[in-house]
Every structure is written in structure tokens, then in C-alpha cells.
Design brief:
single chain; alpha/beta; Rossmann fold; Dihydrodipicolinate Reductase, domain 2; 2 domains; 6-stranded parallel beta sheet; 14 helices; inositol 2-dehydrogenase (NAD+) activity; Inositol 2-dehydrogenase/D-chiro-inositol 3-dehydrogenase; TAT_signal_bac_arc
Length: about 450
């Protein structure tokens, strides 16, 4: 590959908000405030919010939106394909938010077209939260752009090459409309990681040679699934168990590992150009999901530096949830013990011992889940450049690159995954309640799984 994918350099002020997107998109974003009128209604201090996807992450994002300290926000509409899930979220958010919650029954929408009805409750300049399974991101984002609505969308925002190309094109369109778009890679808003990034870029660790990250723990979410109940619709089942299906989420790999991969690439200030990987399924009993339960990926950057990602979803094994960086002058902790607090540190040499500690972020760390919303609402109210789509799409693509390398047994490059024609769910925008699902089970109730070395041009057949 002649041109390595790069992450743009950022100054000290901008990185405390987010690492700006690269290339022409960053330039367009910077110019958009001067070229396009403000998108939030003049004279209005209240940013209205619609929640699309009312599961745990969506409910959490809505709570973060309603908890901002800058400006005023109000939740006015909710949508989901499952009524019970919407009602549980509705009750929780109503109880916690008082006057900031205004979602009567006629603004609760059930079904695959509910996102349109929820967005239609907003005015241009308000914000829609997209927290459904990732397969639906581009569909919902397209409609939000048409309506002039700002967006916060959960990660990952794509699951394969074709959906990434769609999202990149939509991102460019959203910039032209001066829309503010946040992507739920909240680690980019972490103040501790931001200071560590500044120190690395200033040369305190010399050249970054190796990065490594770990997410190893027992099964969580819907990563492993038992056979579908006989009385349950196939499509409902696959959406409800979305971590188990590559079309819906990119599987556990994309949904679980993207944060660690992304924060390592941030510190390197570049995207890797290729990946090779191994993975497998072990003592899985009658589980029917498409996931491997162990993954090991070697990502290579243009300068030859490496990022090693290790993921395992098994009970009874050593657990670790952390990211590290190794340079020619020392080593660093990027994150420890899940996503927050990060507890960033720099050590002289490669032994991370107390006596070798030369810097740590030794003040309280603001919650990055809250910070990403403070930054988004600030941008909406004050018309500041804020569009994370390109960076979010590329982070999602790089994650998919490692997953595809493991699932096919091949070396996969950035260009190859971007240009791949295997779209997991090409008709996701046409799905209907009770309709057919993108993949079908065989007579034993099992779904196609990756077969490295046998199926090499796509992740399953």
C-alpha cells in the first residue's frame, strides 16, 4: 500500500475535546462554521433529544445527554423494535430526570420505522441518539441528515467494508450540512489519555514500537447464544441477541474490542495498514452464535510498529482489560481496569514498576461518557466544528480488519477490507417486523460460522 491511513495531528486544546478527523473531512469541518448557518434554532436554549434504541447503552447515553452541565436538554421521543425494552428504559429515564423527560405515550414508537417518527419529533439542530445494533447506523444516519438533525451514535458505526463506504459518504454529507456528530468512542474524550497522547507525541517515550491490548473475561452481553426458542420470530431473535450475529454487530469482536484498538491507534497517531490473526471456538456445547471465543491479532503500521490485540471470552481464565504502549525510551499504561478511570502512567524502561514510574495522571478523571456529551452539546449551542464520523468509521473498519483476518486466516489490508464487497446485510433498510432475517439457521438450528482457510474471501458462507 502506498499511502498509509493516518490520524491527523492535533493541538493541545483540540485533543482535550477529541482527536480531529483527517484529510479533507477535517478541512471541511473547520470551514463549515463559516460557510453554513448555525443549525440550532436561534433563541432556543433547549436541545431536544430523541432516543432510537432503548437497550442498556441507549438508556445510558440518554442519561448522559440529560445530565450535561452546559445548556439544557430534554428527551422528547423514544423508539425501539421491542415494546418491553422501550418501556423499561422509559420508566428508568422518567424516574431519574423529572422535567428533562417529556415522552408521553404518543411519542413512543415501536417498529423498524420508529426511528423516522422519533426524529420527526425534533426540529433542525436537535440531536438523535442511535444505539440500536450497529447494522442500522447508516440507515438512521441518512434520515437524520435529511432532516438536519445532529447525531450521537454508538460504536461501532460500521460492520464491514460496504457499510463503511456508505458511512464515509454520509459523513461528508453531514459536514456539508454543518451537523454536529458524536461517535461513542468516549476514550477519545478522556483527559488522562489526552495528556498521555500529548506526552507521547512530544517524544517522551521516543518512537512507539509496540502497543498491546487485552480484553479477556467471561461471556457478557449476548455474545454466546442458545438455540432460538421455537415460538420466537427469527429476526426478533437475531436483533435481540445481536452480539451473536456478525450482520447485526460485527460480533463480539467489533463491539467489545473497538475501544482498546482505537485508543492504541490514537496513541500511535495512525491506523494500521494490515492485520493477521488467529482465533477459534472451544468447548461451546450447543451455542449457536457466529463468534470465536478467543482472538489474537497482530496489526502492523506503515513504519513497521505493531499492535497486538488479545481477546478471550471464557470463564475460569485469567482476566485482563487494559492497553499498553512501548517506546524506545519507556513504556506506558494507556488504560487499566476497563475504560474509566484510565490511570495513565509512563515508566522509564520496559518494566512497569513503582521505582520506574516517571509520570502519572494523579488528579480525578472526569467521566468520559459525560465529557463526550458536554463536548457535543457545546458544539451544537456554540456552532463549533464537531464531526467524528470519519474517525469513527475508520476505527470501526480497522476493528473489522482484525476480525476478518481471524475469521478467514488471511492477511487483510486496510484497502482490502475497505474495498470488500461482502456486505453482511445489504437489505437492512428493508427489514420489517416479522420478516425474514439476513441469515438463516440450518436444520440443527445453527448458523454459518467462520472457517479460516476454507472460506477466505468472506467471513462466512
Amino acid at each position: 500500500m502506498n499511502d498509509a491511513p493516518q490520524i491527523a495531528n492535533s493541538n493541545s486544546d483540540s485533543r482535550r475535546t477529541f482527536l480531529k478527523t483527517s484529510g479533507t473531512l477535517a478541512a471541511a469541518t473547520a470551514l463549515s462554521g463559516a460557510m453554513v448557518p448555525r443549525v440550532h434554532a436561534a433563541g432556543s436554549d433547549v436541545v431536544q433529544v430523541a432516543l432510537v434504541g432503548c437497550g442498556g447503552r441507549g438508556t445510558g447515553a440518554a442519561q448522559n445527554a440529560l445530565g450535561v452541565k452546559i445548556g439544557q436538554t430534554k428527551l422528547v421521543a423514544m423508539a425501539d423494535v421491542f415494546e418491553n425494552r422501550l418501556n423499561i428504559s422509559h420508566q428508568s429515564l422518567k424516574k431519574a430526570n423529572g422535567e428533562k423527560f417529556d415522552v408521553p405515550d404518543d411519542r413512543k414508537f415501536i417498529g423498524f420505522d420508529g426511528y423516522k417518527q422519533a426524529i420527526d419529533c425534533l426540529k433542525p439542530g436537535d440531536v438523535a441518539i442511535f444505539a440500536t445494533p450497529p447494522a442500522f447506523r447508516w440507515v438512521h444516519f441518512k434520515y437524520a441528515i435529511e432532516k438536519g438533525v445532529n447525531v450521537f451514535m454508538e460504536k461501532p458505526i460500521t460492520v464491514d467494508g460496504p457499510s463503511t463506504r456508505k458511512m464515509l459518504a454520509l459523513g461528508e454529507e453531514s459536514v456539508k450540512k454543518n451537523l454536529k456528530v458524536g461517535v461513542g468512542l468516549m476514550c477519545r474524550h478522556c483527559e488522562a489519555r489526552g495528556e498521555l497522547f500529548d506526552r507521547i507525541q512530544a517524544g517522551e517515550m521516543g518512537d512507539l514500537i509496540t502497543l498491546r491490548c487485552y480484553r479477556m473475561h467471561p461471556p457478557v452481553g449476548s455474545a454466546f447464544s442458545d438455540p432460538k426458542p421455537a415460538d420466537m420470530n427469527e429476526l426478533d431473535y437475531q436483533i435481540q441477541r445481536f452480539h451473536s450475529f456478525l450482520w447485526a454487530s460485527g460480533g463480539l469482536f467489533s463491539d467489545f474490542y473497538i475501544h482498546n484498538i482505537d485508543e492504541c491507534c490514537w496513541m500511535k497517531n495512525a491506523w494500521p495498514v494490515k492485520a493477521q490473526a488467529v482465533g477459534g471456538r472451544n468447548y461451546r456445547g450447543n451455542k449457536i452464535d457466529q463468534n470465536f471465543d478467543s482472538y489474537a491479532v497482530e496489526y502492523t503500521f506503515e513504519d513497521g510498529a505493531k499492535l497486538f490485540m488479545n481477546g478471550r471470552v471464557m470463564p475460569g481464565c485469567h482476566d485482563e482489560f487494559a492497553s499498553y504502549a512501548h517506546g524506545s525510551k519507556g513504556a506506558a499504561v494507556i488504560s487499566q481496569s476497563s475504560h474509566s478511570p484510565a490511570r495513565c502512567k509512563i515508566y522509564k524502561g520496559q518494566n512497569m514498576t513503582k521505582e520506574n514510574l516517571i509520570w502519572s495522571f494523579n488528579r480525578p478523571e472526569p467521566n468520559p461518557y459525560a465529557l463526550e456529551w458536554e463536548h457535543l452539546i457545546d458544539a451544537i449551542l456554540n456552532d463549533k466544528p464537531h464531526n467524528e464520523v470519519k474517525r469513527g468509521a475508520e476505527a470501526s473498519l480497522v476493528t473489522s480488519m482484525g476480525r476478518m483476518a481471524a475469521h478467514t486466516g488471511q492477511v487483510v489490508t486496510f484497502d482490502e477490507i475497505l474495498k470488500s464487497e461482502h456486505e453482511f446485510a445489504p437489505d437492512v433498510d428493508k427489514l420489517t417486523k416479522g420478516g425474514e432475517a439476513p441469515i438463516k439457521a440450518n436444520a440443527e438450528g445453527k448458523y454459518p460460522i467462520p472457517m479460516p482457510g476454507l472460506v477466505t474471501d468472506r467471513e462466512y458462507s
